Amino acid sequence: MLKIGLIGYGTVGRGVYERLEVSKASISAVLGEECHVEAILIKNEQKHRLLEKECLVTVDWAEFQQAGPFDLIFEAIGGLEPALTYTLAYLEKGIPVITANKKLVAEHGAKLEEVAESNQTYYGYEAAVAGGIPIINVLKGLLPTTGISRVSGILNGTTNYMLTEMIENHRSFAEVLIEAQELGYAEADPTDDVGGFDAWYKIRILSRLCFGQWPNTELFHCQGLTALEDWHAEVGERIGLKLKLIGEAHSINGHVHGSVAPAFLTKTEALASVSGVTNGVSLEGKDIKQLLFIGPGAGKEATANSMVEDFLFHRRYQGNRLSANVESIEEIPFRYSLVFIKQAERDTALQWVKEQFIQVNETYSHPEGEAWLVPSVYEVNAQFPSYHVYGEITSSYAEESSSAQLGTF
Length: 409
Ligand code: NDP
Ligand code: HSE
What we know:
This protein folds into 3 domains: about 120 residues, NAD(P)-binding Rossmann-like Domain (Rossmann fold, 3-Layer(aba) Sandwich); about 160 residues, Dihydrodipicolinate Reductase, domain 2 (2-Layer Sandwich), CATH 3.30.360; about 70 residues, 2-Layer Sandwich (Alpha-Beta Plaits), CATH 3.30.70. Helix content is about 35%, strand content about 25%. Strands 7, 8, 9, 10, 11, 12, 13, 14, 15, 16 and 17 form an 11-stranded mixed β-sheet that branches. The protein has a 6-stranded parallel β-sheet with strand order 3-2-1-4-5-6, with helices on both faces. Helix 1 packs across helix 12, helix 4 packs parallel to helix 5 and helix 7 packs across helix 8. It is globular, with a radius of gyration of 23 Å. Bound molecules: NADPH dihydro-nicotinamide-adenine-dinucleotide phosphate and L-homoserine (HSE). The site of L-homoserine has 11 residues, from helix 7.
C-alpha cells in the first residue's frame, strides 16, 4: 500500500484527492499496489469542519507528519513558505514530492532539485506549468537531446480567459477577473496572474528545461496587463491582430533571454487562436521546426491529472533533460512594436520619435489616440504602452481594416 500525504485541499488538492479515488483501479494496475491518502494538511479548520474523510485532516504540521511515514507527498498550497520547509522536509528523507507550485519551483527549484537528486528521490513539477499540458515530462522524457532555440507560450489561463472575454464579449476587466477567481483559475493573490508573475515563473521553469540551466532572472523581463487599456486591444482587433500575454525565451549567441509581456499576434501565428483558459506552448528548433502543445491551462481536474500522471510517469520512466542541446535562434522573433499614444500625449510622442530618429511605419487612429507601428529595435519610452508584434505584419493588415482610419507618417 502506497501511503500518500496531501498538503493543501483547495482547488488543486481536492482535485488530486478525487482523481486518486476515481482512478484507484487503474492507478494500482500501473503501480502494482494500491494507494491511499493517509493525511491532509489544511490551514483553516473551520472551513473544512464538515469534511468527512477516512484519513486524518489537520492544521497541525507535527500531527500531519506523525500520520506518516508517507511514500509520496502532493503539495498544493502555493506560495514560498511554508511550502518550501514542508517540501524540503520530505525530499531530505528521500520521499518524492509532486507539486503544482510554480512560484516555489521558479524561485527555489535549483536547490530543491539538488536535494531531491542527492537523496535519490523525485521533485515533480509537471502541473506547475500550463496546468493540464504535459510539457515538462515531454521535455524531460521524450526530447532529452533535441535542440531547442526558442520556447514561447500562453502560460496563464486566468489572463487568457480574461482577454478572450473582454475582447470577444466586451466584458469588463473587473467582472471577468471575479469570474476567473470563482472558476478556480486565479491565484490566491490574483496580482500574480494580472501582473504577469505567474507566467514569468512558468517561462523561467520552461527555460531551465529547454536550455539546461536556471535562468538569470535579470534577463527575464516581466510585464502584465496592468497598463492595458480597452482601446489597445480594439485597435489590434481592427487590424487583424490578437492581443495575448506571451511568455517567451530564446537562446542567442550563448545567452538566454526571456520575457512575459502582452503582445500582438498575426492570424498566422499558431498561438493566436488559443482562447479562454486554454494555454499553448511552442518549442522551436532546427530539427523539430515547431512543436505545439495546446490544452487546459488551469482548473481542478486538468491540474490534478497532471500531478497524478507526473508521479506515475516518474515511477515508470525517469527522464531528465539535464544538459540540454541548446540552439541559437536565427533572428529576433519580433520585428515591430505597436506603441499607444493618447491624444493628449501626441506632441510629446512626436518629439520623442524625432529625437530618437524613430521611423514610424504606420499609424492607426482610434478616438482615444493612435497606435504607431515602429521597428522593435528602438528603446521604448516607458511613458507609452508598447507591445511587440509576433508574425509578419505588412500594410495589408492596414488595407484589410475597414473601420480604422489609417495613415502613414
Ligand atoms: P487554493 O487557495 O484553492 O487552495 C490552497 C490550499 O492550501 C487550501 O486548502 C489551504 O487551506 C491550503 N493552505 C494554504 N496555506 C496553508 C498552510 N500554511 N498550511 C496548510 N495548508 C495551507 O489554491 P489552488 O488549489 O488553486 O492552488 C494551489 C497551488 O496550485 C498553487 O501553487 C497554484 O499556483 C497551483 N496551481 C493552481 C491551479 C489552478 O487551476 N487553481 C493550476 C495549476 C497550479 P484551507 O483550505 O484551509 O484554506
Ligand atoms: N493561476 C494560474 C493560471 C493557475 O491562471 O494559469 C494555473 O497555473
